[in-house]
Write a structure and sequence with these properties.
Layout lengths: L4 E4 L3 E7 L2 E9 L3 H14 L5 E8 L7 E5 L9 H11 L4 E8 L6 H18 L3 E4 L1 E9 L4 H10 L3 E7 L3 E8 H15 L4 E9 L1
Antiparallel strand pairs: 1-7, 2-3, 3-6, 4-5, 4-6, 8-10, 8-11, 9-10
């Protein structure tokens, strides 16, 4: 089951100055590549006169499957987008986009200076970035008799497992979603309490 990870809880902006150049860093939530690109475009429109709009994003899970990209936007190759992306990757964030807007102050920073400036700008913004946890949930189905339904619902509340849907036929079928670390203990408790008369099956994963 994929590991949980942190994502931005809100959008933040943080400004720093390096040798008279202004570095304005924006970090936002970006669940998809389209979200990341739309945010980047909105920042470009917000600062149309800026010298550079350098970007980096991890649109999806940092544990695999994400759209990952960065752009130097006219700065020397590898001096802006890459150090920005490296900070995000090191933090282990997912679903995140960063844009650093630069207004050139007249003093050249050199390749090393640019790498430090862009990396430090994103690092400083990350330090004030509120986060929330993206918890991966696994879907399951509980099958029980009508007389057992209330008992099952009690266990769902006790283990803080989400009830997604409920169907009534010859038996009661409850569709649930649970964090991976709860599955074994919940299943064991349910089976022991019902002496194996309640069926529990787990299927594909979802995310909250």
């Amino acid at each position: 089951m994929p590991a949980d990870y942190d994502v931005p809880a809100e959008t933040v902006v943080f400004e720093t100055d390096v040798k008279k150049s202004r570095f304005i860093t924006w970090i936002a939530h970006a669940p998809s590549k389209a979200d990341a690109q739309a945010f980047i475009q909105s920042i470009r429109q917000k600062y149309p006169d800026a010298t550079h709009h350098c970007t980096a994003y991890i649109a999806g899970s940092p544990n695999g499957g994400a759209a990952i990209a960065c752009d130097d936007d006219g700065e020397p190759s590898g001096t802006a987008g890459k150090p920005m992306l490296n900070v995000l990757l090191h933090k282990g964030f997912g679903e995140v986009v960063a844009v650093v807007v630069r207004y050139f102050g007249g003093i050249r920073l050199g390749a090393g200076g640019l790498v430090r400036a862009y990396g430090s700008a994103v690092q400083a913004a990350c330090e004030v970035l509120p986060l929330k946890r993206r918890v991966h949930l696994q879907k399951g189905v509980i099958t029980c008799d009508y007389a057992q339904e209330q008992s099952v619902r009690h266990y769902l509340v006790s283990f803080q497992i989400q009830l997604m849907d409920c169907h009534y036929g010859d038996q009661v079928s409850l569709e649930i979603a649970a964090a991976g670390d709860l599955i074994n203990s919940f299943t064991q408790q349910l089976m022991e309490s019902s002496r194996g008369r309640i069926g529990v099956s787990w299927s594909e994963e979802a995310s909250e």
